[in-house]
Amino acid sequence: MRRLISMLSLRRLRWLAALLGGGTLLVFLLGASAVGDPPAPWTKFDHDQTGFELRGRHRTVDCESCHVNGVFVGTPKTCESCHNDITAPGKPTSHLPTSDRCESCHSDNSWLSVRRMQHMDVTGSCTSCHNGGKATGKPLNHIQSGNDCESCHTTSVWTGVRFDHANLTGSCVSCHDGSTATGKNAQHILSSTNCSACHSTRRWNPVTRVDHIELSGTCSSCHNGSVAMGKPANHIPSGNDCESCHVTTAWAGARFDHSNVSGACTSCHNGSTATGKPGKHVATTSDCSICHTTIAWTPANFDHASATGNCASCHNGSTATGKDARHIASSTRCEACHSTVAWSPVTRVDHVEVTGSCATCHNGSTATGKPANHIASGNDCESCHSTTTWSGARFDHSNVTGTCTSCHNGSTATGKPSKHVATTSDCKVCHSTVAWTPANFDHANASGNCSTCHNGSTATGKNPQHIASSSRCDACHSTVAWTPVTRVDHLEVTGSCVTCHDGRTATGKPGNHIPSGTDCESCHTTSTWDGAVFDHRNVTGTCSSCHNGSTATGKPSKHVATSSDCKVCHSTVAWTPANFDHANASGNCSTCHNGSTATGKNPQHIASSSRCDACHSTAAWTPVIRVDHVEVTGSCVSCHDGRTATGKPGNHIPSGTDCESCHTTSTWDGAVFDHRNVTGTCTSCHNGSTATGKPGNHIPTTSDCKVCHTTVAWTPANFDHAGVTGNCASCHNGSKATGKPSNHFVTTEDCSSCHNTSNWSSINFRHSSPNYPGDHRGSPSCSACHRTNSQTIPWPNAAYAPDCAGCHANDFDAGEHDGETVSQLRNCAGSCHEGSGEHRVSDSSWD
Asked: Do 468 and 495 touch, CB atoms closer than 8 A?
């Protein structure tokens, strides 16, 4: 008993007294030891009676770590009640999301050795763990797919997947290539790699449809009667180019192509298989291709050499063109005059076949008729001519139907002599058919003018005082006497008006006449002075001398302001349209172009001043010669909206409508960029395409640029670790940012395990592994265990690792442990259980 007491610290005795019901045991033990009573048998405490069996690591922890202040009643029994980061380490922040209890997956021996995984209680998606970090992710050769692992895999095992094509992102051939999965077999028809065009994701056969667009072989490579339906027995004789006639959607409704047909025309065009020769077809034994093409029956390249009948058997007006209504009366022997090449010109005329009279053909239309100089006669050509030749006619006046002059014209026969009285009357009016003289003269038949005879030589002519005129005496004089004149025909007067109308010979210009020249006829007619057709060309004054609002119409009140003469813009024909010249206008543009006097700005005109000439020319409103933005009063976007004027292009930076915040009115280019007008996020422009984006060595982050950078310059940046998406080492690697120094503790743990983002030097590492036993007498230094400055511990007695004996085997005193071995008591830090050790790592009194 004394030996037992000497091995127990006072604190442990107090703990045992509290455990067994008070200080009686302690007094008993002390008393027994003092009086030398023989030792009583030690009773082992069975923790199982509490309903919480100590297993694994729980057997080596201090009792007071659970039973604080010696309180045993109401001690929690669930893992999470203690492992809450207060009493003991709890779930780390990187723990997978789950609603299950710790013991469902972890054992009492170690947190790290997960006994099993209860996937049914995991609340996150598969990829929240199976991402290649926390747990095994998709291998490099995995089928291209989305992240819904559960669409194919179960939570019990990866293999034996229930494959679901709906989650795949790659094409069929990315798997079905004959290696990863079954591909096209050797007998497969020639086609593209787009399997889904014909097959479904349920099974290869039967195919859902055949998409001929994806096929690369010819039709006959499949449609050969074996792989797919081929040509039927009654198919037209042809080659194997099905596509020359058929489309890939249906056999029916074929677009027929004769170039692929191998048989003769009549093998199909026999009236049964296809249309044959109609009943009225030209009689022939030749093949269709002699005359017809494979494009259309008509027009046909007809060859008379192939016809077996005579001309009339076809050229009867029904089967083929016959004699038209204007054809000369003749027999049916077409070949007597025509050739088989063309109807016209006729090769010859065989008058033997002609059944009509000469005039039936020789009428100047069908055949040569009487020439223009032919004697007027009847149509009985044969009364003078023979059918052999026209010349050498036997003339017979009895057939002449014309007048005397039709022959007696000085050409065909003797005509009027040069000094004959001008007349259009027939010779017989004055002459007889017996002789020319004597003639019975009548002036009524004279067709010449009076001066022909009345020329002062043949008969009395004009006296010297006669007004200048033509020689048509009868225009003013009668045939009875020279005076008095019957009328004055001004058409025959050859002098100017003023020659007579001078106020003496005839009435002249009145005193109030418009200033003008002497060409009266420019305005007046010869029939009357009134109703003159005014001609400005004869006016000698200026426009305003008449057009003053009194003598004639003057400028209206709304006339364009000008001091120029009317003729500068107006013509003498009409006031409008005027040949307007802005150079003569004395006002500004808006004086006239106000929407009243002249066209003004329309409602769609851009907001601007009234200086039209700032943009428009005087030649036309459009196109504008330039846009003077100084005169524009509206905002940029009131015009630059993509309709009135060029607006923002499709790839423009997302921004407000204040164009002027970056651009000038002289050019779009060379804009002075101002971020204040940008409406999108930084990355909408800074994406490496529109503008400079994140460089390849940029810190991984999903935050917007403005979290760290300003719009003035990229550097210096106001760095914030909260937006970084990578781990510490992705930047703190000695290249992008400060990394671990050369003497840093060798470990694979992430920087955040010990350091925080605000201070490197403040190290806060907590051993979460159950292999770390308590506080080891007040937190020994790291190098006490990690003597090689590495995360790997060099155990002095590796055979006993990771128990206490792994380090303290050499400190074991066999004499003090009742003959028990190091192997039996390898875990020194036990409870009060026999054979399991009784030292506490926090107790400084044991030796």
From this structure: yes
Residue ranges of E strands in 527-579: none
Long-range contacts made by residues 671-680, C-beta under 8 angstroms, separation at least 24?
A: 675/711, 676/711, 678/653, 678/654, 679/654, 679/655, 680/653, 680/654, 680/655
Which residues have a Cβ under 8 Å from the Cβ of 817 and sit 6 or more positions away?
825
Task: Give me the residue label for tokens 């709304």.
Answer: 558
CB 473 within 8 A of CB 448: no
| Residue 538 three-state SS | helix
Integer Cα distance of 162 and 170 in angstroms: 18
Q: How confident is the model over 267-323, as pLDDT tens digits?
A: 888 888 888 888 778 888 888 888 888 878 888 888 888 888 788 888 888 877 888
Proportion of the chain above pLDDT 90, given as a percent = 0
757: CB partners within 8 A, 6+ apart: 721
CA 45 from chain centre, in angstroms, equals 86
What's the pLDDT score for residue 840?
Answer: 67
10 Å CB burial of residue 659 (0-12, 13-18, 19+) is buried
3 state DSSP class of 469: strand
pLDDT of 779 strictly over 80:
no
d(CA 385, CA 393): 5
Q: Can you list the positions of beta strands (E) in 763-837?
A: none
pTM, to two decimals = 0.31
Q: Per the structure block, which two tokens stand in for 754?
A: 């010990």
With CA atoms as reference, report the closest residue to 57 among 802, 807, 823, 809: 802
Question: Could you tell me if 328 and 356 are in contact, meaning their C-beta atoms sit under 8 angstroms apart?
Answer: yes
Quick check: helix, strand or coil at residue 423? strand
Farthest CA pair distance, the chain: 210
CA 522 to chain centre: 68
Cα 838 to Cα 817: distance, rounded to the nearest angstrom = 10
Q: How far is CA 837 from CA 459, 812, 821, 825, in A?
A: 179, 11, 11, 6
Element (H, E) at 497: helix 497-500
> b/e per residue, 429-448, with b = 16+ CB within 10 A?
ebbeeeeeeeeeeeeeebee
